[in-house]
Amino acid sequence: MSPATSPAAATAVPSGLLRQSPATRRDFPTARVLPAGSSRPLHVTSAPRRTLATAVRTQSSANQGYLPESEFYKIEAIIRPWRVPHVSAGLLEIGIRGVTVSDVRGFGAQGGSTERHGGSEFSEDTFISKVKMEIVVCKEQVEAVIDKIIEKARTGEIGDGKIFLIPVSDVVRIRTGERGKHAERMTGGLSDKLSSVVPIS
Partners of 134 in the beta sheet? Predict the structure, then answer.
């Protein structure tokens, strides 16, 4: 748990967001731009800034409470490119069919270190190629989707990625204009699979 989200370091404010305490606040350097052709050195000063911790935080799986409260959530998973087929297959197993996938580049704790794939090692100079998977689900499905992504994307090494949880106020299907659960539900998904099972007598 980071200092920004630990109970000792953060205090709740009326808006529902978290605020860092003065003891853990860090200064962010700001620079003053000089006119072109100026020979004076650039002066950098430190000015205090407010840092807001993420408003969405997962509680225990038994409670499944998220702030701010929402009926739908978007799950963004940044994972290794070669784990995408495993994660996609795992999501299909639990009836999740609507997934958006995009190629992204960046760095975190891995920070341009050696990447392993298929038994071979290679290194990137600055940014590392990853894949971002975006899934919008109703609140009841969030924990199952997160658990499945972790199960299928984890290798146990630095660079496995991160999962972000973002509240979604509404879902609209363009073709029909449906909103809410009717728009979020995918034909042939988990709900349809369960309802089509005929008990054997």
Answer: 76, 100
